């Protein structure tokens, strides 16, 4: 139901930032950049595009965020809204520390396992949130990790 605010996946956001005078690039220059590119190839890691001011300050791999005032007006806190017909089920929200290393399929597997294991909705949402956080840490997430799982009832 969402779209990552990433320069890698959102050409419209890249255009908005460039129109404000910002730059989008990997920031990988010199020896450390070459080494990082080489290691990412071996470990099958995608190198993120990042947002920079024209003076080189920056390096955030998202186009919208709370905080990060050093990148204003390029990175904005404005939320995107979308209306969807509400059904019964679970909603999992997470920060990029989760989504950078955990895919949607893994979230479904975690939810299904929790539903098989627990009857109480409180135990399900708690275990999904904790399980996904731990899973992201075990997969080597280098960012802060926030996960929120909620039950939607009719």
Structure characteristics:
154 residues, alpha+beta, 2 domains, two-stranded antiparallel sheet, 5 strands, 38% helix, globular, protein serine/threonine phosphatase activity, PPM-type-like_dom_sf, PPM-type_phosphatase-like_dom, PPM-type phosphatase domain-containing protein
Descriptive account of the structure:
This protein is α+β, with helices and mostly antiparallel strands and 154 residues long. The chain has 2 domains: 11-71, no CATH class; 89-152, no CATH class. The chain has helices spanning 11-19, 30-42, 96-99, 104-117, 121-138; strands at residues 23-25, 50-52, 58-60, 89-94, 147-152. Strands 1-2-3 form a 3-stranded antiparallel β-sheet, covered by helices on one side. A two-stranded antiparallel sheet has the order 4-5. Strand 2 and strand 3 (58-60) form a beta hairpin. Helix 4 (104-117) crosses helix 5 (121-138). The mean pLDDT is 86.
Main sheet overview: 3 strands, antiparallel
**Integer tally of domains:** 2
Count every beta strand, where a strand is a DSSP E run of 2 or more residues. 5
**Looking at the structure, what is the overall shape?**
globular
Mean of pLDDT: 86
Derived structural class: alpha+beta
Low-confidence stretches: none
What is the H-and-E element order? HEHEEEHHHE
Total number of helices: 5
Strand content: 5-15%
Write out the strand line-up for the largest beta sheet, numbering strands in chain order: 1-2-3
Helix content: 25-40%
Termini separation? 18 Å
* Rg, Cα atoms, Å: 18 Å
Summarize this entry quickly.
With 154 residues, the protein is an alpha+beta fold. It has helices spanning 11-19, 30-42, 96-99, 104-117, 121-138; strands spanning 23-25, 50-52, 58-60, 89-94, 147-152. It folds into 2 domains: 11-71, no CATH class; 89-152, no CATH class.
